[in-house]
UniProtKB/TrEMBL annotation:
<dbReference type="GO" id="GO:0003700">
    <property type="term" value="F:DNA-binding transcription factor activity"/>
</dbReference>
<dbReference type="GO" id="GO:0003677">
    <property type="term" value="F:DNA binding"/>
</dbReference>
<feature type="domain" description="HTH cro/C1-type">
    <location>
        <begin position="17"/>
        <end position="71"/>
    </location>
</feature>
<keyword id="KW-0238">DNA-binding</keyword>
<dbReference type="Pfam" id="PF01381">
    <property type="entry name" value="HTH_3"/>
</dbReference>
<dbReference type="InterPro" id="IPR014710">
    <property type="entry name" value="RmlC-like_jellyroll"/>
</dbReference>
<dbReference type="InterPro" id="IPR010982">
    <property type="entry name" value="Lambda_DNA-bd_dom_sf"/>
</dbReference>
<dbReference type="InterPro" id="IPR050807">
    <property type="entry name" value="TransReg_Diox_bact_type"/>
</dbReference>
<dbReference type="InterPro" id="IPR011051">
    <property type="entry name" value="RmlC_Cupin_sf"/>
</dbReference>
<dbReference type="InterPro" id="IPR001387">
    <property type="entry name" value="Cro/C1-type_HTH"/>
</dbReference>
<dbReference type="InterPro" id="IPR013096">
    <property type="entry name" value="Cupin_2"/>
</dbReference>
<dbReference type="Pfam" id="PF07883">
    <property type="entry name" value="Cupin_2"/>
</dbReference>
<protein>
    <recommendedName>
        <fullName>HTH cro/C1-type domain-containing protein</fullName>
    </recommendedName>
</protein>
<dbReference type="GO" id="GO:0005829">
    <property type="term" value="C:cytosol"/>
</dbReference>
Length: 187
C-alpha cells in the first residue's frame, strides 16, 4: 500500500504549471496544443484535480522549456531527508515505471536527481527532453535496458550509463524490483 506522501504532489504541480505558463505568456489552449494534451486535462492539472502521468508532465516541461523537476518540486527546506518508499512518485501510463524527484537543481546549477522503479513489461518510451539534456543512470537493484532508441544497453546492479536525453530514449526492466538513480543535467 502506498502512503499519501508517495503520490504526485498535485498542489505543487498545479501551482508550477500556472506559474510557468504565465512566465512564457501562453494561453491554456496554446500550451495544451504545444504539449499535445487535451485542454480539459491541462485545466484539471492547473486546478489540482488532475492525475498527471510522467508522459504528460514531460510534454508540458518540453512545451514550457523547463525541466520536469520545475513542475513537481516543492519549495526546498534547508535539510531534506527522503526515506525509501516515501518519495513523491509520478507513474507512467505506458509501463510499470515510477519516477520520483529527489532533488532538483537550484538556480545556477544544472542537475536533477531521481529514484526510478521499474517492473518487467512494456518499455517506458521517453520523448526528447529540452535541448542539451544529458541523462546519467546508476542501477541499484535488478536489471534495466536503457538508452537512446536503437542504442539501448542492458545494465545490472552498480552499472552506470550516460546518454543524451534530448533524443527519444527508453527504459525497460529486465528483472523484478529494479531500482536506479537517475541524474539529469540541463544546459
Amino acid at each position: 500500500m502506498e502512503s499519501e506522501r508517495a503520490t504526485a504532489p498535485l498542489d505543487v504541480i498545479a501551482a508550477s504549471i500556472r506559474r510557468e505558463r504565465d512566465r512564457v505568456g501562453l494561453s491554456l489552449t496554446e500550451l495544451a496544443r504545444q504539449a499535445g494534451i487535451a485542454k480539459s486535462t491541462l485545466s484539471q492539472l492547473e486546478s489540482g484535480t488532475g492525475n498527471p502521468s510522467v508522459e504528460t508532465l514531460w510534454a508540458l516541461g518540453v512545451a514550457l522549456g523547463v525541466p520536469f523537476s520545475r513542475l513537481v518540486d516543492p519549495p526546498r527546506p534547508a535539510v531534506r531527508v527522503v526515506r525509501s518508499g516515501e518519495w513523491p512518485a509520478v507513474r507512467s501510463e505506458q509501463a510499470h515505471f515510477t519516477g520520483a524527484l529527489l532533488a532538483s537543481c537550484p538556480p545556477g546549477a544544472r542537475r536533477d536527481i531521481y529514484v526510478i522503479t521499474l517492473e518487467p513489461g512494456s518499455p517506458r518510451k521517453a520523448e526528447a527532453h529540452i535541448p542539451g539534456t544529458v541523462e546519467h543512470l546508476v542501477v541499484s537493484t535488478g536489471r534495466v535496458r536503457t538508452g537512446p532508441v536503437g542504442e539501448q544497453v542492458d545494465l545490472g546492479p552498480g552499472d552506470y550509463i550516460r546518454f543524451p536525453g534530448d533524443v527519444p530514449h527508453s527504459y525497460q526492466a529486465l528483472a523484478a524490483d529494479t531500482i536506479a538513480v537517475l541524474v539529469m543535467e540541463h544546459v
